[in-house]
Structure formats: C-alpha cells, structure tokens
Amino acid sequence: MGDNFYSKVYDAVKRIPKGRVATYGQIAIMAGNKRASRVVGYALHVNPEPITVPCHRVVNRRGGLAPSFAFGGAEVQKRLLEAEGVKVDDNVVDLERYQWRGD
Q: Would you name the residues annotated as active-site residues?
C-alpha cells in the first residue's frame, strides 16, 4: 500500500459528515481494499492534514475510540465527536445511531 491508497483513505474520511462516524473496515472498503483496516489506522495516524481529514470520525468495528488517537488520545477524540453531537459512552459510539452509511 502506498501513497495512492493513503490518498483514497483520506478522500473517504473527508466524506464522513459531521455528527457521524465510520469504521476502519468501512474506510478500507471505500479505499479499495477490504482487508486493509489496519493500514487505514496507520494512514490516519500519520494524517498530514488533521483539520481537513477528520480522522476523529473513524472508530473500530465495535464503535470504540482509538486509545492512541494520533492527535491527543481517546479523550481528545471523544471531545471532538461530542462537539459534533455524537454521544460517547465509556469511549464507545453507538454505531446503530451514528454510523455513516455513505448516504
């Protein structure tokens, strides 16, 4: 996976609307490789444009926040999500309610 895959990841993450989240696996599929959810995580960890690529909107398959969120840890990710109206309980987002379905 190279820069082209990372670009696809960043483009997909930019599409997640405020107040919604997507999973690493979901972004991997959108970027063209359904088996690359860990690579998505790494791409977001080295995100060169955290203001325009809202990586705080990406959670794990269970809705869990990233314990090593690249820009300040799970507490910062939680604060950013809550500022957008996403309720976070015990560092978990209710995917039934907040998961973006690409619509």
A: 55
